[in-house]
Every structure is written in C-alpha cells, then in structure tokens.
Write a structure and sequence with these properties.
With about 575 residues, the protein is mainly β. About 5% of the residues lie in helices and about 45% in strands. Strand 7 and strand 8 form a beta hairpin. It is globular, with a radius of gyration of 24 Å.
Length: about 575
C-alpha cells in the first residue's frame, strides 16, 4: 500500500510490507518531485518485514527524503527455509529457490542466532596447528589426524565441487582457502588449494602462516564438508543435491523455529555520481537484517589487513630503500574491498539514526568514495561477519597499498563523517581480521562515544598506507569511545590503532580495557591498548584511560604527541566514555 499527503513543497508518504512497495513508494516520490514540485519528502514505513529480491538503490532523484520506521520495520535480504524433515538427530530441508536459482549461502540463522557452519572442532581452542609451509609448491603440511575424514573423497580434483575450506589463522588475518587435494605422508598430510587464492596467499609475505621455534604455529579449522556435521547447533549446505542439514540445539523444536538464509550481499545502496551526488537523505529507526558474502566460496579470501583482500601481492628482494624516512619495504600488494550490506557512494549528508544493523556476512555500513558529511548515531551493530562500519577508501584496486594516496580530486575522500553513540557488539565474527570501526583514507572524521565490544581484532582502526608521507588524511578525531573485550581471535592488535600521516588528528579521552587471550594467538604478548603503527605522524594521543601503559609506537613518523595515557587518567574521563544517552 502506498499513500501520499501533499502540503506545499513538502509531502508525507506511507508504504507497507509487500512486493516492491518500498520501491514503488520511492518512485511515487520521484514522480511528484517532477510534476508537483515536491522538494522535501518523508516516507513512513509501516511495521513489518520488507523482503527484498534486489538491493534498494537511493539515487540523486531521492534528494531531500526522510525514510522513517513507524513501528518495527525490518528490511531483510534473507529467505526463510521451511519443510524440515528428521533424519536421526539431523534435520534436512530443500534448498529454497531465490530469483529463479537454487540459493547458495555461507551463513544460517536459527531464531536470530547465527548457527555454526559445520567444522572439524567445536572448541576453537582445540584447533590443529600446521606443521610446515612450502610457498614454492603452494602447500601446507598438517597432521594426518586433522584431515583423515576428508581423504579419498572425489571432490579433491580441480573440477570438483563443493570444496571443503581451511580457515587459517595468520597473525592479524584469517585466510579462507578452498582445499583442492590432500595427500597422506605417514602421520602427516600435504594440502593444496584452489586458485586464485592459492597463488595470492603463498606469494604474499604478509601476513604469513606461522612456523615458530616455540611451537606456536598457525592454527586452522576445516569447514564446508558433511563429515564435520556432528555437533548440536551446526549446519551444512549440500549445493550439489540442493539440501541443507541442521542439528538442533537441546530443547529446540523444529516445528517452531524460524530459520533464515541470506540471499543478497547488499540491501541498500546510496549511489550518486561526483557530478550529481545524493544529498540529504536520512534513515530513522529501521532494522537492516541478513546479508551474505559469496566471494570466499568462489575465490577464497587472502586479506592484507582490516578485511581488505589481496588481488595481487609479492615479496620485494632485496628490500626497497624508500629514502624518505619510511621503513624499507619488503612487499607489494593491491587490495579489493569486501561487500557491504549498506553502502554510501558519491553522497552528501546521508544519515542513519536509531537503526539496527544485524546478521551480516561482511561489512555492515560502508561510506566509501566521494562522501561528505553524514551522521551515524545511536545505532546498534550486532552479529556482523566483517567490520561493523567502514569509512573511506583503502586505495583503488589499481593503487599499491604502501603508496601515499592523495586523489587528484580530493572530493573523492570520505570527509566530515560523524560516527557517534553507537553500540557495536559481536563484529568480525566471520572474517576475524576485521574491525569494529575501520577508517581508511578519511578527512575530518569524528568517531565519538561509541561502545565497541566482543570484536575479533581491533576496536577502531584509522588510517592506511604504512608510510609517513603527506596524503589525503588529516583533522581526524577519535574521542570518548569505550572499547572492551576485543581481540577475541587475533593479535598484533590494539583497542585503537593508527597508520600513516594524519596532521592535526587526535585520539583522546577513550577507555580501552578487557582484552581476550586466545590460546592460539601467534605471539601471546603482542597486543596493546593503543598502537600507533608504521608512519603514524602528527597525531596527538592524550588522556586515554587504560589499565596499564601497554602501548606500541612502531616505526612512527614525526610530530606525534603522547600525554597522560594509562591508569592515572582522571575518573571523570573514564566515566564519560561510551554512549551518551
């Protein structure tokens, strides 16, 4: 249902759940702008779930639109799976058809809980460790015991499908490698992987699988094979036979549960152009729910850092003397950007207030290129597979990651965005190397009074480039945030982390506490509360409360100021950190 009430150049519209009703309402507003002179429009979404078959796209024709939830409004990219039949302790259902094709997915939610994709270990502390790495042969040696259930299966040939996957813990990243072949050698096994991830993974020097003298080798888990479906709460998708399997938790009645699989990578795209940006559009009180990210199933995932995946990488031998004050460089890398459930490009003053972002496979909310202004405030980000919020470019795909990036058109940068008073909980739960709030090349960003907890790696990361040369970044502020229970899976981390030259930028009055201590971290001591990494320059770090002065200043550039950080910081600063209600 669509309704409209006109008053001069302002207009009120309503839409209710149903096929394409949201799209039709936006079209109605656009037509009224053309024919009736409407400039400011408010679209009221009536309570209910709006199930999408394709992303909603907000265009320059939608400038000056408020989209407001009247009641509980859910914009969903999920598909309900029904018709479960019991097979012993396991239940099986047909894979649903979505947009004319059998649905393929990497996540499953049962009554709002993210179920475990069947894997070889229920307790991650029991992950096996690799034994050796051969970068020339592009193989990893593992204990035979770890892979014996997979040996001899027909899918381990180049044309086979589906592929079991190895999730490999590598210092500050998690690699997803699709297994191609396993060859037993006594009590060991040699594992090889599919392209393109195999070549990229073994060519790159950083991060690398760890083989150490003290036995703290990289840990790994295996997933995506029915052989691993053996614990309550686990599921497996058989894409060949179009069946999905699930083992209920104790007390779970399959007649009553709601099981959702994600069908779309993107739910909402705000898409303008540099010459014609989207302007002054706001979203209020809306829940965005259920997105997928399928690239790891097709191409694997070999990240560089903060979830940005490598599309090419190699070692420099000998190391390159950059002759500009920066560390010698031993690698080259070009990155791609993971998918986002909600994205903003070429837009000015796009705002999200009191919204929920939940049950996503990759990035939650992404302000990318040519964005100016905008406020994200009093939102909740929960159960996010990648980074909860991403802001700014991490360099175009044609731009090497270690070069100082200043675009010819500086409007390309993400500028003057405010991210404030948001709750971020359980982020990076699928790609462990992602961030609570990940900011790349940003200018004038204000990250204020957010509470960030239960993240797999770093709470807030700001900057990119690993060098101290002047670039597009400056005037950034990270203030008043409460970060706790971070680094659930990865180390070489901090509650707040910076990279590269950022003149007149401040990290102040934040609280960082309560780090996790995963037993499989590559170096159990290599974690910090505050961390200014390579090239960090002209940044003031002051009045941040931490339980101890465990900080790292690694290969920093000039102009940094550290003042009054640690347990001596005034209680008044400590109590003010976090969300302002």
């Amino acid at each position: 249902m669509i309704g409209v009430t006109l008053s001069s150049q302002s207009a009120e519209y309503t839409a209710s759940p149903g096929a394409f009703t949201l799209e039709k309402a936006l079209q109605e507003i656009r037509v009224d702008r053309l024919y009736k002179g409407v400039t400011d429009a408010t679209l009221h979404l009536q309570a209910g779930t709006y199930r999408l078959t394709q992303p909603i796209i907000i265009r320059p024709e939608d400038n000056g639109t408020r989209i407001v939830a009247d009641g509980e409004v859910i914009i969903s990219g999920g598909v309900r799976i029904t018709g479960w039949k019991r097979q012993g302790k396991t239940y099986v259902a047909d894979v649903p058809v979505f947009n004319g094709r059998p649905l393929e997915f990497r996540q499953l939610w049962v009554n709002g809980r993210k179920a475990v994709r069947a894997r070889d270990v229920a307790d991650l502390e029991q992950m096996h460790k690799i034994l050796a790495v051969d970068k020339t042969a592009e193989t990893i040696t593992v204990p035979y015991e770890a892979v014996k259930s997979l040996l001899g299966k027909k899918q381990y040939v180049e044309y086979g499908y589906p592929h079991p996957e190895m999730g490999l813990h590598e210092m500050w990243c998690l690699a997803n490698l699709r297994i191609k072949r396993i060859e037993r050698q006594g009590d060991m096994a040699i594992v090889s992987f599919h392209q393109p991830e195999s070549h990229i993974h073994f060519m790159r020097p950083w991060p690398s699988p760890m083989i150490t003298k003290n036995g703290r080798n990289s840990a790994f888990y295996l997933t995506n094979d029915k052989a691993f479906l053996d614990h309550e709460g686990e599921w497996f998708l058989d894409v060949v036979n179009r069946k999905v399997y699930y083992i209920p938790l104790p007390g779970e009645n399959m007649a009553d549960v709601e099981i959702e699989a994600p069908a779309l990578e993107s739910l909402l795209k705000v898409e303008g152009t540099p010459a014609m940006p989207v302007e002054n559009v706001s979203f209020e009180g809306i829940t965005f729910r259920h997105s997928t990210w399928m690239r790891p199933s097709y191409s694997g995932h070999a990240p560089l850092q903060a979830g940005q995946y490598l599309i090419e990488a190699y070692r420099l031998t000998p190391k390159l003397d950059r002759q500009n004050g920066d560390h010698k460089l031993d690698n080259q890398g070009w990155v791609g950007r993971p998918a986002a459930a909600v994205s903003v490009n070429a837009a000015t003053d796009i705002c999200f207030s009191r919204c929920r972002f939940e049950h996503f496979a990759a990035t939650g909310l992404d302000y990318h290129r040519y964005t100016k202004g905008g406020v994200v405030d009093h939102c909740v980000f929960e159960d996010i597979g990648g980074s909860a919020v991403s802001a700014g470019s991490f360099g175009p795909e044609g731009f090497e990651a270690h070069i100082s990036y200043t675009p010819v058109d500086e409007n390309e940068l993400c500028t003057d965005l405010q991210i404030s008073d948001n709750m971020i909980h359980d982020a990076a739960n699928e790609d462990w190397g992602c961030i609570g709030i990940a900011a790349g090349y940003v200018r004038g960003i204000r990250i204020l009074h957010n509470e960030i907890s239960d993240v797999s790696y770093t709470g807030i990361s700001m900057g990119w480039g690993w060098n101290q040369q002047v670039n597009g970044m400056k005037n950034n502020l990270v203030k008043g945030n409460l970060i706790h229970h971070y680094a659930r899976h990865m180390y070489d981390t901090a509650g707040i982390y910076t990279l590269s030259c950022q003149p007149h930028s401040f990290v102040e009055e934040n609280v960082v506490r309560d780090i996790y201590h995963p037993g499989y971290a590559h170096d159990p001591n290599h974690w910090f509360y505050l961390y200014t990494d390579e090239g960090s320059s002209y940044i003031t770090v002051r009045n941040n409360w931490t339980p101890a002065e465990k900080f790292l200043k690694n290969a920093n550039g000039p102009g940094n100021t550290w003042e009054n950080n640690g347990p001596m910081v005034a209680d008044s600063i400590k109590t003010r950190a976090g969300i302002r209600h």
